[in-house]
Amino acid sequence: MTIEGNVWKFGDDVDTDLILPARFLNLSDPAELAKGCFLNLRPDFIGRVQRGDVIAGGSNFGCGSSREHAPLAIREAGVGAIVAKSFARIFYRNAFNIGLPLLESEAAAEGLREGDRVSVDLATGVIENKTSGKCWRANPIPPFMRELIQAGGLVESIRMKTHGARG
Amino acid sequence: MGMTITEKILADHAGVSAVRPGDLVQVRVDAAFSHDVTAPLALETFHRIGVPRVYDREKVILVADHFVPNKDIQTAQQVKKMREFAREQGLLHFYEGGETGICHVLLPEKGLVLPGQVIIGADSHTCTHGALGAFSTGVGSTDLAAVMATGEIWLKVPGTIRFEYTGTLPEWVQGKDLILHTLGRIGVEGALYRAMEFAGPVITALPMHQRFTMANMAVEGGAKNGIMEVDGVTRAWLDERTSGPYRVFRSDPDAGYESVVTIPVDGLTPQVACPSSPANVMPVSDVGPVPIDQVFIGSCTNGWLEDLRCAASLLEGRKAAPGLRLVVIPGSPRIYRKALEEGILATLLDAGAVIGPPCCGPCLGGHMGLLAEGERAVSTTNRNFIGRMGHPKSEVYLANPAVAAASAVLGRVAGPAELF
Prior knowledge:
heterodimer; A: alpha/beta; Aconitase, domain 4; 8 helices; globular; B: alpha/beta; Aconitase, domain 3; 2 domains; five-stranded parallel β-sheet; 18 strands; 32% helix
């Protein structure tokens, strides 16, 4: 399972208020949530992000609130994966639960630059910078968590197992 | 090797004799709750899972506390979804209107969370309840929906960092200052994925509300949970509020801690977390005379009766500075009533305060008292991220209620000692 897109570079401690300001929390439609994604931090993000793009974050990405609206907004905006030095705990669970893959790699998060073309292979953990030619290896995503991503999240994965089909 | 409280509770709820940090365990959940921000997503997800009933209608709890009384049509719709779900499932605990308060204040007061339990909440500050000697952690809406359906959750057993506070607390230094000082030392990911166990003679002497304040902000250090041992203070607090039976777990003397951090408190002064990180902490005297536009006293961190009492003791016979907005929000209806009966609210009103109904208020920038561009606030809350309380170009200074009250009087960031 490979994701390829352009890099959006962020710093350390990107918190859930920066990912999605609270004024969007009276909504639960993912398409509406996406409109608020990074609005306070990078107002240009939503107009320019393309399906499959990759976020390169610093340490403690997604810290703060437990709002699942945050990873939902990122996923719905089109982001295919996030590579960061480290992730906040609740954000990590939430992202996989809603089908947004995360990879931890200090070197890759450091080495990726804004606008670079990158491909991310979830099964091997290989992160390849197609612009600079550099390559890094994060811990691969284990099969059961790739299943979550492939199914589109935890619920869909449970449903596929129990009902045999997506509903 | 022995186990920590966190490990013992998780082992017990997983039905195994022992666990070690890093073990993945499936545990029984004693209380699962959600509020008006996270419940709508969780309920939608619960329906998609396709289970007809929640696992236990006494243990699944819904509290409307973020945008109440409903601030607009969308939030009214959100609370309506909760109300309908509670009715259709026959939930015993759904709180709104005059019965509601901040979930992390209301649930302990009602005895719905107790020592020894595993508590899962769809809110990051669920770590608050660890002050009662419970394992309590925040999750997202999907995880919560799965708990509502199954009564269980998988968890990785966290390693524990033990924080031992020694010495005697100086005047005006409170639990809030201890946790801010600790966050300043370890940073916002200093306890990432870990349990923070708060202990030592200072904690033993700390009143219950200040213990809640400390456990509340464990997540600001990245922790999975904060926890404290049950003692006489815990028991007395619970005895006044609930008759529910509970179980007490203690850390073994030979428990395997990841590290032990000793924090001497003699000489500590009130602390302030400056914009825009809860770990950007310094003594209030080092902040400088930063002019402010608003003071907020309340939230799951400092919305307790004693917090209001502390602020009122300093505001008695004084006034909030001209042009400064002082917003006070009691954490629960019980606290509101007691503050009314004790005359605390009258004192605060005389000082120029606006008193809001029990709810999260402006803490997360959603409702009642947001900041405009360029404005600054001193707030007794837990987060001062960019744009947290309103406009992205507003700023928040986190402090204890005494600092908040003194700052309100002087119109700038100030310590209580400056009032005398």
